[in-house]
Amino acid sequence: MREFTIGKNDAGQRLDRFLGKAMPLLPPALLQKYIRIKRVKCNGARCQRDQRLREGDVLTLYINDEFFDQPREDNLFLTLFQPKLEVLYEDEHLLVVNKPAGLASIPSSLSPEEPSLAQGLVHYLGPGACVHLVNRLDRGTSGVLAAAKNGWAHDALRRQLHSERFRRTYLALCQGVPCPPEGTVDQPIGRDPSSAVKRRIDPEGQRALFPEGRRLDRLRGGRFFPGKQLKQSHPAPPSSR
């Protein structure tokens, strides 16, 4: 653990800019993650990457010491951060991985410096690799994600994505007791004007269909119910394979 007290010369800086200079070996994507999971605290409280520092602020950093060193030839490898991949299946056309919760499928325009599964796939396949995600999962959703290695496979799999050959099952842990225990959620969904990512029921939105929702199990007063916390995808291979 290390602490920094913000002086007059550093007051007014964004938190992430200050930390980037204090830890030159820490990859920007990992820095954003550490801020999000509260390994960085300002005056003992959670902080935001874009907050402005004030004179006298105390930053507490629960980060490994090696990231505070100055860049040298023997430690530059620390600046490379790639998410670990759990590969479930791979052939010459298709790559299927288990995406963990907390990792975005693709880079976000809101946080382009954060790591994504797509970046990890490119790193896994090597220089010049072209990756086409067939399906996507939200950052907080874990589950199976399929990626095509070429345009032909991507087109074939995309055609199957909305057919009976591509089956998806959603599981979620929810608070409360869904009633009735089975049913179909069929409401139009649109953007929430107050947020860039939230959605809400909107008469002018797109039709959303959640078929065959049913309660699965009970856990200390809560219940499992099909939702969007755990997602399993079962892609069929291209028609020629």
Indicate the topology.
Layout: E1 2-5, H1 15-22, H2 28-36, E2 40-42, E3 45-46, E4 58-61, E5 87-90, E6 94-99, H3 117-125, E7 132-133, E8 142-148, H4 151-161, E9 167-174, E10 182-191, E11 199-201, E12 206-214, E13 217-219, E14 222-234
Parallel strand pairs: 8-14
Antiparallel strand pairs: 1-4, 2-3, 2-4, 5-6, 6-8, 7-8, 9-14, 10-11, 10-12, 13-14
Question: Could you walk me through the main structural features you see in this protein, from its secondary elements to its overall organization?
Answer:
The protein has 241 residues and is of the alpha+beta class. The protein starts with a strand and ends in a 7-residue tail after the last strand. It folds into two domains: 2-79, Roll (Structural Genomics Hypothetical 15.5 Kd Protein In mrcA-pckA Intergenic Region, Chain A), CATH 3.10.290; 87-189 and 207-234, Pseudouridine synthase. Strand 13 (217-219) and strand 14 form a beta hairpin. The strands form three sheets. Strands 5, 6, 7, 8, 9, 13 and 14 form a seven-stranded mixed sheet that branches. The chain has a four-stranded antiparallel sheet with strand order 1-4-2-3. A three-stranded antiparallel sheet has the order 11-10-12, with no helix packed on it. It is globular. The protein has four helices and 14 strands.
